[in-house]
Amino acid sequence: MSKAELNELEVIKILGELKFLFKLNHNVIIPELDKLENITKNKNYENSNIERIFGFAFRRVQEIGIYDEDIDKLFNELHLIICST
């Protein structure tokens, strides 16, 4: 398995965990997380603005005022993967 494929699997796993935590702990749905997941699953990186969508998701969480240590850690991991590709 290539590094890109491992990164894609990791991104999908992290997005799933984030969506679960938001829904379970905060009863919130962040649509940008679904967009990121669709881009990753479809490998549609051309013109996807993946970094911009990540930024929107992060800002939405800040606007809502959610702080959760687990969510923060997952966002940091996701940021590292997205920005390294």
Q: What can you tell me about this protein's structure?
A:
The protein has 85 residues and is mainly alpha-helical. The protein is built from four helices and no strands. The chain has helices spanning 3-26, 31-42, 50-64, 69-84. Helix 1 packs antiparallel against helix 2 (31-42), helix 1 (3-26) packs antiparallel against helix 4 and helix 2 (31-42) runs antiparallel to helix 3 (50-64). The longest helix has 24 residues, at 3-26. The mean pLDDT is 86.
Mean pLDDT: 86
- Poorly predicted regions: none
Strand content: under 5%
Which sequence of SSEs, written as H and E, runs from N to C? HHHH
Q: End-to-end distance, in Å?
A: 16 Å
Could you tell me the number of beta strands?
0
Task: Supply Rg.
Answer: 12 Å
Gross morphology is globular
Which structural category fits the helices and strands? mainly alpha
